[in-house]
């Protein structure tokens, strides 16, 4: 099997979009199509179902994906192993949640690109629920997530920053002048939340459940930016990381509600597979991340 075809297959399996895959790989779309067709012909199996403009992995495609990851990983390690010992080359694949993509990592990515322009960075904004799986399966080299300190047999986790979670609302909200807000106060309120499975949403809901509280309306979004915008126009009370709302709070456009429940605190951390070879390129990225995110 041609490694270039496997690399194309991997990117298409992650994006499920021929146009996006072509953009990430620097190909024209017809090249992606031709490589996938050639790989399917060699294997004698259809790897993707084409449903109009949408595609999905077939069972054969799902079975091939972990093998493709292993083959590409071994090829990359072999290539780097015969390079100069301190040379940073190759491709680095990073995954992170929307919050960290937007508010933490741009400075890291910018500095790394300035320092190592010869390295190809593939960056995947990824839902929280998928990050650990992608690292475990080798689909990303490194992932960033915000949750409680991680312990997992196959994963190495390094904490970077403590993160506070706030309840925020528009200054016009009736609770903006309160001296304290308890779980029971939220019974008749509209609460703006992230996707199910998100660590801070889980902690917040545990506190509500323990108090026997069910808010009148709970609106779920897959974007922290959408939650923030809804809070700004007075739609309800948002539960968000401090870094997401710091600017709006300093400008007086949002206020932090004085939550009397248990503080919700998480840790921004980076994770990688314990068996992964820490190439010079990956080590350089880890070091730049530490320097930027952990500086006083």
Automatic annotation (TrEMBL):
Keywords for this entry?
Answer: DNA-binding, Transcription, Transcription regulation
Outline the extent of the HTH lysR-type domain: 1-58
One Gene Ontology molecular-function label: transcription cis-regulatory region binding
Family as reported in the entry's similarity comment: Belongs to the LysR transcriptional regulatory family.
- UniProt-recorded name of the protein: Transcriptional regulator, LysR family
Q: What is the organism of origin for this protein?
A: Ktedonobacter racemifer DSM 44963
């Amino acid at each position: 099997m041609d490694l270039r075809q496997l690399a194309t297959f991997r990117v298409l399996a992650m994006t499920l979009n021929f146009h996006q895959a072509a953009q990430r790989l620097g190909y024209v779309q017809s090249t992606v199509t031709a490589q996938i067709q050639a790989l399917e012909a060699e294997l004698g199996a259809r790897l993707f179902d084409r449903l109009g403009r949408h595609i999905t992995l077939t069972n054969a495609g799902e079975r091939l994906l972990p093998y493709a990851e292993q083959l590409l990983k071994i090829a990359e390690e072999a290539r780097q192993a015969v390079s100069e010992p301190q040379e940073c080359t190759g491709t680095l694949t990073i995954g992170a949640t929307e919050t960290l993509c937007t508010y933490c990592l741009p400075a890291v990515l910018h500095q790394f690109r300035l320092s190592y322009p010869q390295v190809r960075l593939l960056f995947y904004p990824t839902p929280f629920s998928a990050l650990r799986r992608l690292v475990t399966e080798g689909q990303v080299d490194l992932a960033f997530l915000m949750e409680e300190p991680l312990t997992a047999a196959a994963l190495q986790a390094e904490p970077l920053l403590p993160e506070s979670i706030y309840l925020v609302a528009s200054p016009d909200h009736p609770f903006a002048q309160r001296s304290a807000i308890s779980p029971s106060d939220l019974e008749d309120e509209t609460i703006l939340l992230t996707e199910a499975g998100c660590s801070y949403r889980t902690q917040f809901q545990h506190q509500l459940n323990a108090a026997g509280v069910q808010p009148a309306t709970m609106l779920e979004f897959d974007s922290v930016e959408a939650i923030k915008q809804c809070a700004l126009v007075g739609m309800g009370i948002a539960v968000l990381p401090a870094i997401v709302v710091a600017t709006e709070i300093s400008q007086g456009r949002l206020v932090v509600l004085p939550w009397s429940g248990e503080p919700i605190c998480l840790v921004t951390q980076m994770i990688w597979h314990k068996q992964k070879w820490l190439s010079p390129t990956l080590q350089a990225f880890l070091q730049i991340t530490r320097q930027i995110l952990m500086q006083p």
